[in-house]
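Need C-alpha cells for this chain, all 202 residues.
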Amino acid sequence: MSDPLPVVYLARHGETEWSRTGQHTGLTDLPLTEQGERNALLLGERLRELEISRVYASPLQRARRTCELSGFLPTAEVDPDLVEWDYGEYEGKTGAEIRVRHPGWDVFVDGCPGGESPQQVAARADRVVRRLRAHGENTLLFTSGHFIRVLAARWVGSDPGLLGRKFLLETASLSALGYDRDVSRPVITLWNQSPAAPRPSH
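Here are the C-alpha cells for all 202 residues:
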C-alpha cells in the first residue's frame, strides 16, 4: 500500500474588529476580538484531531494568536510570505467605500494602489506552494482570508482573478489542499469549515 498523500491545512485567523465590520485589513496588526479568541479555541479542538508534521504562521498577531489559542504556537515557524494582501490606499476601507470611487473594483483583478497587485500576491503564494510540495508532509498554515484564497487558486494552477474571487471564507475557518490519486493532480479537499460546523462524512 502506498503512503497517504500529504495534506495542507489552511486556518484563517479569528475575528478582528475590522473583519467584523468588513474593513480591508492587510498589514495593520490588529488583535482578535473576544469572539475571535473563542472561535480560535474551537478551531484548535478541530485541528488537534489532525496529523500535522509542520506548522507555519503569518507574522501578524491575529494569525499568531489564533495559532497560539489552537495550541500550535510552540512548534510554529513564522513565514513572512503568509502575510495578508497589502491593500495600500485601501487599507481600512470597506468594499462599498472603495467602489464609490472605483465602481466594479475587484481586489483579485485590480489590486490596490500603493499596495500589492494580484500578480505580486500570487508570486508569494507560488513560493509557499513550492516549499509545501518540496516538504511533502502534512502542514498547517495560519494566515489571512484573501491570501488563503489566492493560495488555493495557485495550488490548483488557476489565476486568482478567475478562481480566488469565487471563494468565500469565514474567520477561524478550516480549509485543506491535497491531491486526487497522485501529486500530479492538486485539488481543494475542504473549504471554509467553521469551528462549530459538523464534521464532513466520509
